[in-house]
Specification:
The structure holds two protein chains of two kinds.
Chain A lengths: L1 H18 L21 E7 L5 H11 L2 E7 L2 H9 L8 E4 L1 H9 L3 E2 L23 E2 L2 E2 L2 E7 L1 E5 L22 E4 L4 H12 L13 H14 L3 E5 L2 H9 L5 E4 L1 H9 L4 E4 L5 E11 L5 H12 L1 H11 L2 E2 L4 H8 L3 H4 L6 H5 L1 E3 L17 H12 L1
Parallel strand pairs in A: 1-2, 1-3, 9-10, 9-11, 13-15
Antiparallel strand pairs in A: 3-13, 4-13, 5-6, 7-13, 7-14, 8-11, 8-12
Helix pairs in contact in A: 3-4, 5-6, 7-8, 10-11
Chain B lengths: L1 H11 L6 H15 L1 H30 L3 E2 L6 E2 L5 H8 L1 H35 L2 H16 L2 H12 L4 H8 L11 H25 L3 H9 L4 H30 L2 H6 L7 H10 L3 H24 L7
Antiparallel strand pairs in B: 1-2
Classes of the chains: A alpha/beta, B mainly alpha.
Chain lengths: 382, 311
């Protein structure tokens, strides 16, 4: 497996090197050293809320690159879209960690030169070359934003206030629990087990041996009768908390913001076991048609102002800490609310989404790959 | 062969100087002598579209169900095997999902038939011109609004804090709490597909001659006997025809279970949608073949019962 993957990287790098003349002057390592004139168009795949007119309009005006964005609803969908039509339909994608490695090893994206992004050197150290977008020192994209998957609860109906994920696994709130309808939710169960059952020896919730995996699935099977509904869309969860009789669940900060705005008494927290989370990366297609516009876009969304605007709009944390004062200016207190410029300790407490692969960290081929996660999830829901 | 012979003869009879008209006459003569040629010409475009668009995609679906994907990069691999079907067969979860889908589709069909029969009977036999038109509009009106909106409205009705529980509470009954459950799915499907059952049932009932009912009465049969021995057998093909719609529409749907279902409400369509979303097209194709097979069997039975005469 390892040998094959190395070969894949080589092929990807070679393919990328062949593409380079399109993107300005090539340097020794095959990456462009300057950004040329924009091509006038830019086709992106993004999470909903990532290409708001608020920062897209000024970008179009400044660069002349017309942005055409398609929203994707899941990481799986992003991977599908990036491969559609031979992969040349879209220039870039805002991939989360559970999609980025699949795109890299599937050679759907190509290496980029981070030195062309002026704000990259201001990023928090952990997001300059994170393992979910940098393989063997080669950068396959520029980090964007990150955030935790939080525990959301109704402050009137859940008492005492929860401090642990155990609340969504305990029968106390039977029929009033909701969790995301997503195979990556298995990692949440594994994270909880890593603390509640240390004997299982789970160190990374995305690298599970058969025994650890079975334990996580068993926990989720016990949880199933407690679940009102597995939510597929953020709006579903919002409805469930508003009218559906749900009082506690796994959520994103976005749902909390929306519910509080609708005067529903809710609060969220990162429980003591820690949380899973997402860290998104703008990646450039291996068959990019508008490379200069893509580089200009990655530079644009890394600037403090755009980082702050997006963080507040979506409810997430900017990779660029220079955005924190601007966040407070736009919405007082928002920097602290979204942990802008948070310590490395806080960052490390979040286990970021990544694609589960068969090869564990110790090199042994005994971990459960993502197909197994998907099948287990479908069968769990039954 | 026959056609070329005809045109050769036609050529010799052609009046000089009017070639265009002659050609037209020859052509219409040809079609008159060979009605099948006219039918073929009329049917060729839709038939071609049917073969290309429908049958070809079905074949492509079936073929791809014997392929597989790379577990990590999820790229398609053209390796022939029957693993997808084996997984379907071996896993109790997929069996449960298939049984649930078929079961709810059957329950929806029965509920629709029970509701549609009296309504269709009223429209065909009892109602006068104006009230019939009114009922027609009432039946068809929901079809004018978006399917999605209707499902969302039902979700609001069935929610824990929805209209249904509110009403039950007002009249002193315990809350139903059937929001986000298989009951909700069944109820919504029954509502959404009802017009597709009413119309063929109405059609079948309307075609029963009044004289049959009179004859039955003259021969001393009471209302129940007339219904059981005259009306029901004659209307049955209409019910079966309607059931083809309600059953197949429910069988292939995934939106209602997704939006209104609970923790255990997956349909075959939901699994297909999820697996395609995760790039495992071959497995999705294999599972999608199940409703196809079920529908095939169902149509064979329906034909035996004479449903196609009522369509």
């Amino acid at each position: 497996m390892i040998r094959i993957r190395r070969a894949h990287v080589l092929v990807a790098a070679l393919a990328a090197a062949l593409c380079v003349p399109a993107a300005g002057i090539s340097s020794g390592n095959g990456l462009p050293t300057s950004i040329g004139k924009g091509e006038g168009q830019l086709n992106l795949i993004a999470w909903e809320g990532y290409t708001q007119p608020q920062w897209v309009k000024p970008f179009e005006k400044a660069t002349g690159c017309q942005v055409n964005a398609k929203y994707a609803g899941s990481s799986d969908e992003m991977v599908t879209l990036m491969r559609q039509g031979g992969g040349s339909q879209y220039d870039g994608v805002s991939a989360s960690g559970d999609a980025s490695l699949r795109l890299i090893y599937g050679h759907d994206v190509q290496p980029v030169n981070p030195n062309l992004i002026p704000d990259w050197k201001n990023f928090i150290p952990a997001l300059k070359s994170p393992p979910h977008n940098t393989v063997k020192g080669v950068h396959y994209g520029i980090s964007l934003q990150w955030g935790p998957n939080t525990l959301l609860y109704n402050t009137k109906l859940v008492k005492p206030a929860p401090t642990s994920w155990s609340v969504i696994y305990s029968p106390k709130y039977k029929g009033k629990v909701t969790v995301p309808d997503n195979p990556i939710q298995i990692a949440d169960a594994a994270l909880y087990l890593s603390k509640s059952q240390p004997s299982l020896g789970i160190t990374d919730p995305y690298e599970l041996t058969q025994t650890q995996f079975n334990a996580a699935i068993n926990l989720l099977k016990q949880q199933k009768p407690l679940i009102k509904k597995y939510w597929a869309l953020a709006s579903d969860e919002i409805d469930l908390f508003k009218n559906g009789g749900v009082v506690v669940g796994a959520a994103w900060p976005y749902q909390t913001n929306t519910l509080i705005a609708a005067k529903v008494p809710v609060k969220d927290l990162i429980p003591k076991e820690g949380a899973t989370g997402w860290a998104d990366t703008w990646m450039m297609s291996a068959h990019v048609k508008h490379p200069n516009c893509m580089y200009k876009w990655m530079a644009w969304v890394s600037t403090p102002k755009v980082q702050a605007e997006q963080a507040i709009y979506f409810g997430e944390t900017p990779a660029n800490p220079l955005a924190c004062p601007i966040m407070n200016k736009l919405s007082p207190g928002s920097a602290a609310q979204y942990h802008c410029g948070a310590s490395a300790k806080y960052f490390d407490s979040i286990k970021f989404w990544k694609t589960p692969v068969a090869t564990c960290d110790n090199g042994k081929n005994e971990c459960m790959d993502y197909t197994k996660w998907q099948q287990a999830w479908t069968q769990l829901k039954g | 062969m026959a056609a070329s012979l005809d045109s050769a003869q036609g050529l010799s009879r052609q009046p000089p100087g009017r070639p265009a008209r002659a050609a037209r006459l020859r052509l219409s003569g040809l079609f008159w002598r060979h009605p099948w040629a006219k039918a073929l010409l009329l049917l060729a475009p839709p038939l071609l579209a049917f073969i290309l668009v429908y049958l070809a995609s079905l074949v492509a679906l079936f073929v791809s169900s014997f392929w597989t994907v790379n577990p990590f990069t999820t790229e398609l691999q053209h390796i022939w095997n029957v693993d997808n079907y084996k997984t379907l067969w071996d896993s109790s979860a997929y069996r449960t999902i298939a049984v649930r889908t078929i079961g709810i589709a059957a329950a929806v069909t029965i509920a629709d038939a029970v509701i549609a029969f009296p309504l269709g009977y009223f429209m065909a036999r009892v109602a006068g011109g104006r009230s019939r038109a009114f009922v027609f509009v009432a039946v068809l009106l929901p079809l004018w609004s978006s399917y999605l909106i209707r499902v969302y409205i039902w979700r609001l009705i069935l929610d824990d804090k929805g209209v249904l529980n509110w009403t039950l509470q007002k009249v002193g009954l315990p809350a139903a709490n059937i929001g986000y459950s298989n009951w909700a799915v069944w109820l919504i499907f029954t509502y959404v597909w009802l017009p597709f059952m009413i119309l063929p049932v109405y059609g079948a009932l309307e075609r029963i001659p009044e004289s049959f009912l009179e004859a039955s009465r003259d021969l001393g049969a009471g209302g129940i006997t007339t219904f059981r021995r005259v009306v029901l057998p004659l209307a049955l093909p209409g019910v079966i025809a309607g059931s083809i719609f309600t059953f197949s529409l429910t069988l292939g749907d995934y939106v209602t279970p997704l939006l209104a279902g609970g923790a255990s409400s997956q349909f075959i369509g939901n699994v297909v949608y999820d697996t395609i979303g995760s790039n495992n097209v071959p497995f999705a194709a294999a599972f999608a073949a199940v409703p196809l097979a079920v529908m095939g069997v169902y149509l064979l039975i329906a034909r035996k019962l004479g449903a196609f005469e009522a369509l």
